[in-house]
Specification:
Radius of gyration of chain B: 16 Å
Helix content of chain A: over 70%
Number of strands of chain A: 0
Number of domains of chain B: 1
Largest sheet of chain B: 7 strands, mixed
Strand content of chain A: under 5%
Order of helices and strands of chain B: EHEHEHEHEHEHHEH
CATH class of chain B: Alpha Beta
Oligomer: heterodimer
Shape of chain B: globular
Distance between the termini of chain A: 51 Å
Number of helices of chain A: 5
Strand order of the largest sheet of chain B: 3-2-1-4-6-5-7
CATH architecture of chain B: Alpha-Beta Complex
Helix content of chain B: 40-55%
Structural class of chain A: mainly alpha
Strand content of chain B: 15-25%
Structural class of chain B: alpha/beta
CATH topology of chain B: Spore Coat Polysaccharide Biosynthesis Protein SpsA, Chain A
Number of strands of chain B: 7
CATH superfamily of chain B: Spore Coat Polysaccharide Biosynthesis Protein SpsA, Chain A
Chain lengths: ~140, ~230
């Protein structure tokens, strides 16, 4: 175990962040997958800061000799994975937002001009109108 | 059996009034999709007799057109759906040409080609350079012999959309939906033909499409739809 002012500071930050993550999760503001990811990351940082020797055990697996280099490469790879995940999530959010805005516009149009769903509408049209209703009103 | 004209408009307060008046004078219903405009586009369009569907924020022309088509299809009597620009470049008096062309044939979609008339002079040099390559690519992919697939002046028979319902669920990069439109129409075996149309210069304002971004976006959309499954 390596106890220096720096490792203590890193551990305090990691514990504080871990608490924040768990509080957000318990308040229902964070999904369990995200909670697991960030809790795991902060715990790993805390453990590696206290026991840097653990990194030495991983060095041969990555064919590296330098602890610092391993940490840097690992961090960059992790950041890329996180960025990829965030961008994917943003795309999905944008997709959902576009669809919802479009369907809200259609619903408002229907209400404003008195277009009620008609039995003569095609099945496809009817499906979309029902879907729009569910999006807008069953949130 | 009626015809509904749909217009996607974004900050077109200076042009939309004349366009809507032109459509209404011909006796057609007109739906303007206000795509998150920050000016008085919607108010002016409505004052001139259009019905308004309003996007709360700007989603791009493609998504606005899809919203318009969906709104038009709510009317079960609507058989022909016209899509045209709100910037005044498309002449509303040519709408009957589309409708008559569909009535006189079994074709599902009529595209208004700017290239079959003397409109090429309005295109920029870059447009003139890229357009043949793009048009050739679309023709190769879809099998449609259309000279101007990028035009926004089109007329659809209702059944064209009913046979490609997944088109309305297109939400990623919908501003480039023209590519998807033709690829999906061709996959569904829908017939497409074209007629010549005249294009006028914008009455005022400038286009909101950046040429570089639009070109790259179209290329990406083309590759994406090529690699996507037929019903996705």
């Amino acid at each position: 175990m390596l106890v220096t002012p720096l490792t203590i500071t890193i551990d305090l930050i990691a514990i504080a962040c871990l608490v924040i993550v768990l509080r957000r999760w318990s308040a229902g503001r964070m999904q369990w997958q995200t909670t697991l990811l960030w809790a795991g990351l902060w715990m790993a940082i805390a453990i590696f800061a206290l026991f840097p020797g653990l990194i030495d055990a991983l060095l041969p697996l990555a064919h590296m000799q330098e602890r610092l280099f391993f940490a840097l490469v690992g961090s960059v790879v992790l950041l890329f994975i996180l960025m990829f995940s965030v961008f994917g999530r943003l795309d999905r959010l944008q997709q959902a937002q576009s669809h919802m805005i479009s369907q809200i516009a259609i619903r408002e149009y229907r209400m404003r001009y008195g277009w009620e769903p008609s039995r003569k509408s095609s099945a496809d049209t009817q499906n979309y109108l029902n879907y729009a209703d569910s999006l807008v009103w069953n949130d | 059996m009626s015809t509904v004209v749909t217009i996607a408009a974004y900050n077109e307060a200076e042009n939309i009034g004349a366009v809507v008046r032109g459509v209404r004078e011909l006796g057609y219903r007109c739906i303007v999709v206000d795509d998150g405009s920050v000016d008085t586009t919607a108010e002016i369009a409505e004052a001139n007799g259009a019905e308004i569907a309003r996007h709360m924020v700007n989603l791009g022309q493609g998504r606005a057109m899809l919203t318009g088509f969906q709104a038009a299809m709510i009317d079960p009597e609507c058989e022909f759906i016209i899509g045209m620009d709100g910037d005044g470049q498309h002449d509303p008096s040519e709408i009957p040409l589309f409708v008559n062309a569909l009535k006189a044939s079994d074709t599902d979609v009529i595209v208004g080609s700017r290239l079959l008339s003397e409109n090429v002079v309005h295109a920029s040099p870059v447009h003139r350079l890229l357009r043949p390559a793009y048009n050739g690519m679309i023709s190769k992919i879809t099998g449609y012999k259309i000279s101007d697939p990028l035009t926004g002046y089109r007329c659809f028979r209702r059944r064209a959309f009913e046979r490609v319902p997944e088109m309305f669920q297109l939400n990623i990069e919908p501003q480039y939906f023209t590519v998807e439109l033709f690829v999906r129409l061709s996959r569904a075996g829908i017939s497409v033909d074209e007629i010549p149309v005249h294009v006028r210069a914008r009455a005022s304002g400038t286009s909101h499409k950046g040429l570089f971004q639009f070109g790259i976006g179209i290329l990406f959309a083309t590759f994406r739809v090529l690699f996507s499954s037929p019903r996705s």
